[in-house]
Amino acid sequence: MKNKKLIKDVKQRFKSHFNTEPLLVYSPGRINLIGEHTDYNEGFVFPAAINKGIALAIQKSDAPTSKVIALNMEEAHEFGLDALQPLSDGGWRNYILGVIAEVQKLGKNPGNFNSVFAGNIPGGAGMSSSAALENSFVYGLNELFNLGLTKEEMILVSQKAEHNFVGVNCGIMDQYASMFGITDSALLLDCRTVESKAYTIDFKDYELMLINTNVKHDLSESAYNDRRAVCENISKLLNVAALRDATKADLDGLKSEISEADYQKALYVIQENNRVQRFAEAIEENDVDTLGDLLFQSHNGLSKQYQVSCAELDFLVEKAKESPDVAGARMMGGGFGGCTINLVLKSAFKTFKKEVSEQYKNEFGTACSVYKVKLSQGTHVIKS
Ligand code: GAF
């Protein structure tokens, strides 16, 4: 569904249900060019906000409770704002409750509200529908109740909501990209200083293709938290604040104390951080071959060393390698399903799409989905 229709639908439902004009907020999902599982290691990432996101219609309410309608699911939740706790099997509700609870922890007290939201980010695709949802609510509440939060504070609220109400100890990449995205640009983000440099993205004869495996394997959340714990444990053993500060030589000195599997994971993080820097240089030099190589290397590390890939993602990357029209490809996001990101020759986009879709169907018996995305502006109010 196009964004225009998404926003129109959300607004219409709000008006027909609550009989008043809402504030409209749009918050995008994100892609990530390179730099996976480096954010919580205080390293570098290279994400961009995209033209798929969450639209939120929200307004103050005099009622003693607040109400949220999730239009995609045709579900609703009504709740008081006191003593908020995560709900077991709360699904989308916990992202919103988490945001409110984290705002309250900052000593800010939004009042009751009514809201309707809907999204067009494919679920489980690794394109950060969660961060978009969190950001849309914290942004909407901040505007509506004049809470005085900066964007930097808002993304921390969103991240903590995910830690404390959803149970995923995520880094800051997704919330940052969704909040600070810039049209036609990707952001080289230093996750330690939380400062970024915008790069206008134009791959000339090439363009980005996302291929969604349409699978999300169950262990993704627990495995994510496990990976983070491994990295933090190794940082402690090395006596550094985060793996961002470690070198391969440091790690080699620890070989007798950690398992080979954990050694490889930490080594991946150190190498991936370095790849992000080289990717930025290759963008400046318009060097598509290097960009492509770095994508393939990143995937290899994610699959073999960090062990967060799966058969479906590996298959798609193999097919990309076999094609003379694809400069590079890798899995994107947390892993265990979701999308690959591919750098594909513009003139061969259609043929590669057809080829890879057929091959995927033959191999797994289910369809993959292919998307083109535009790099877009971050979370903002829509003027009606
Ligand atoms: C998920 C997380 F939310 C991010 O913080 C990041 O760690 C990513 O996985 C992996 O790079 O999207």
UniProtKB/TrEMBL annotation:
Look up the EC number in the record and give it.
Answer: 2.7.1.6
Q: Name the keywords, alphabetized.
A: ATP-binding, Carbohydrate metabolism, Cytoplasm, Galactose metabolism, Kinase, Magnesium, Metal-binding, Nucleotide-binding, Transferase
| GO BP term, example | galactose metabolic process
User: Do you know which InterPro entries this protein is assigned to?
Assistant: Galactokinase, Galactokinase_CS, GalKase_N, GHMP_kinase_C_dom, GHMP_kinase_C_sf, GHMP_kinase_N_dom, GHMP_knse_ATP-bd_CS, Mevalonate/galactokinase
Please verify whether the record's keywords include Nucleotidyltransferase.
no
tRNA processing as a keyword? no
Q: Where is the GHMP kinase N-terminal domain?
A: 94-181
Gene Ontology terms: cellular component: cytosol
Write down the superkingdom of origin.
Answer: Bacteria
Q: Which residues form the GHMP kinase C-terminal domain?
A: 280-361
Q: Where is the Galactokinase N-terminal domain?
A: 12-60
Q: Which GO terms describe its molecular function?
A: ATP binding; galactokinase activity; metal ion binding
UniProt lists the family membership as follows: Belongs to the GHMP kinase family. GalK subfamily.
Specify the protein name: Galactokinase
Lineage, highest ranks first? Bacteria, Pseudomonadati, Bacteroidota, Flavobacteriia, Flavobacteriales
